[in-house]
Design goal:
Elements (H helix, E strand, L loop, with lengths): L9 H10 L1 E2 L13 E7 L5 E8 L2 E9 L2 E6 L6 E5 L16 E3 L5 H12 L5 H8 L3
Helix pairs in contact: 1-2
């Protein structure tokens, strides 16, 4: 998916949302804070996942990646930030697990933000997705 092509039909958006599955929490590095929980969801295609970090049941960090693009939010900045991941680059580093890097866009990609929102809306009845959707307001 490049910067200009975010046109997905409703069925593909529904399919992406439905494909998200929770990953075993013990695979993530535990937080040093007792009241902090990490959630990792992987989608049904490569380069599609969502990470949440919650403190006292509130999202303090969120990252959504899909096909080489990223959308993130952090409680310290309280704004959505788009970027590009290194996942689609072919080099020695990108083949190692947990080596994903994100380069922030200078100007947020409004089309990608809307795509992410539409995917999250397919699961809006679930608490974590409802909380994530509230970050878009």
């Amino acid at each position: 998916m490049n910067r200009r092509n975010y046109v997905l039909d409703k069925d593909e958006i529904k399919s992406l949302g439905a494909s998200l599955r929770s990953i075993e929490p013990k695979l993530l590095k535990p937080s040093l804070k007792a009241d902090t929980v990490k959630i990792w969801l992987q989608g049904g295609e490569p380069y599609f996942d969502i990470f949440f970090e919650l403190s006292n049941d509130e999202i303090i960090w969120f990252q959504f990646t899909l096909r080489g693009k990223s959308l993130s939010w952090h409680t310290q900045t309280t704004k959505l930030q788009t970027g590009i991941t290194n996942e689609l680059k072919i080099d020695n580093v990108s083949f190692y697990a947990a080596s994903k890097t994100v380069e922030n866009d200078d100007i947020c990609d409004a089309n990608f933000i809307e795509l992410v929102k539409s995917i999250l809306q397919t699961r809006a009845e679930e608490e974590i997705f409802a909380k994530a959707l509230s970050l878009f307001n």
